[in-house]
Amino acid sequence: MNTAKKIAEEIRYLPEKQAREVLDFVGYLKSKLKQTDKAAQNMDDFDQFGAVFDGKFGREECYDRQNLS
Q1: Longest Cα pair distance anywhere in the chain, in angstroms?
Q2: Dihedral of the CA atoms 57, 59, 62, 63 (nearest 10)?
Q3: pTM higher than 0.85, yes or no?
Q4: Rounded distance, CA 66 to CA 64, Å?
Q5: How far apart are CA 21 and CA 31, in angstroms?
Q6: Domain ranges of the chain
Q7: Closest to 6 (Cα-Cα) out of 24, 22, 17
Q8: What pLDDT tens digit does each residue of the chain (69 aa) get?
Q9: What is the model's pLDDT at position 13?
Q10: Comparing C-alpha atoms, which of 49, 29, 27 is closest to residue 37?
């Protein structure tokens, strides 16, 4: 028996109010999964620049670029 069938079997005999709570929790888990996927997808946009920025920032070096002269 897979997990979905086990869950269905367990909630079969719950009162309606508690069954709705289980359904609400499933909705919460699905929205949480979507947010996690979205966050990972957003980070993919920035990963291409990971090799360029080493985490150190020198304000003076910022102004030493030739195109600012």
Answers
A1: 76
A2: -170
A3: no
A4: 6
A5: 15
A6: 1-43
A7: 22
A8: 799 999 999 999 999 999 999 999 999 999 888 877 776 666 666 666 665 666 777 777 777 666 655
A9: 92
A10: 29
Do 22 and 11 form a contact (C-beta atoms < 8 A)? Answer: yes
* Paired tokens of 29: 């888990």
Take residue 18 and report the two structure tokens written for it: 């508690």
Residue-level pLDDT at 34: 80
User: What backbone phi and psi angles, to 5 degrees, belong to 45?
Assistant: -65, -35
CB 16 within 8 A of CB 24: no
For residue 7, what are the contacts with CB-CB under 8 A and spacing of at least 6?
22
